[in-house]
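Q: Could you fold this chain for me?
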Amino acid sequence: MYNWLLARGSDGAFALRIEDTDRERSTPANVEQIIAGLRWLELDWDEGPYSQWERRDRHTVAIDRLVEGGDAYEHEGAIRLRVPDEGETVIHDVIRGDISFPHSAIQDFVIRRSDGSPLYNLAVAVDDRDMGVTHVVRGDDHISNTPRQVMILRALGEEPPIYAHLPLLHGPDGKKLSKRHGAASVQELREAGYLPEAVRNYVALLGWGYDESTTFFTTDELIERFDLARVSRNPAVFDEQKLRWMNGRYLRELDPEDLRHRLEHLSGRAVPPEAVAISQEKMQTLADFWPLAGFLVERPAFDEKAWGKVMRDGAPERLREAREALDSAAEPFDVERVQAALRGVVDRLGVKPRDVFQPIRVAITGTTVSPGIFESVAALGKEETIARIDEALRRASGDTG
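A: Sure. Below is the predicted structure, expressed as structure tokens.
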């Protein structure tokens, strides 16, 4: 994300490189997952995707050059880079300042295995050189790799790129982010119904901030304002509850037709506009739509717990009264006429509103949770509402013998 913002904001090129020297982990499925995640987030690239493994001939040429120049040597079947006995390698990090690595603390390290395959640090250094990489922005778990890559580049007669090492993400408990903290991958966020623009906004703020108060940024604003110098050195906290809150704000600001298309894309089902209208204000993720308004898309099964809690103590009789009032309601069957019909039942029976509304809610949604009862009934329509109430009444009759 930060690489992409940096490239877009400085008229640079964003290169996508799959660092797949570890062949066991770099399966086609894993690579496709990376690419699919970037595409969903709309982080487009200008170059690549390059495969590091497919560039191993270039790596071999560089290794041979290092050996011929005396900077590397063969030892026990592997090729190692020669680390100077004295001095230090200093990394100029945009975020952390200068970081010194005494050579006395770094042993000669392997750059090619005995089977001829190059190791990660060699491949990265050569690829950075060949691709003209100017900035490397990555997690601070790579800090220990950086002096080795710098040594390789300098041995090849090249100056290293500019480095910026980001703090890793932590969960709200202060521990390294993992699945126990909830959604921990782009794919999981997508499946949970988050919007890519909300995720971009939230992730950009994990360690970076424009000022003390601004939380919501358009993507263009992020590109314009992002600056590596304002990235914090401290670990950032990924809090899914805050992401849900932010995502809810984005959802409510969507054009209803746009939201309907996104719901249909996620679910693979047709979604009526009425369903969007009654649920948009209450949703925080796209996945929230189904518990709220899925009953408008398909007839739900009755939740046994909800049925047992509501459909007792005269509830079927009150439901029958509501059915007759709704059936007699004048057209158009809108929220105002539904409200008038159901309020009339409440007044006529002298009961609390929930004593009438909850049996209707269970009858039409199968559960006790839905958007407003008047909006729900109006959106479902008279014919389907009556049909579902009749089904509930038949079930209640069977329950009572």
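A (continued): The longest helix spans residues 382-399.
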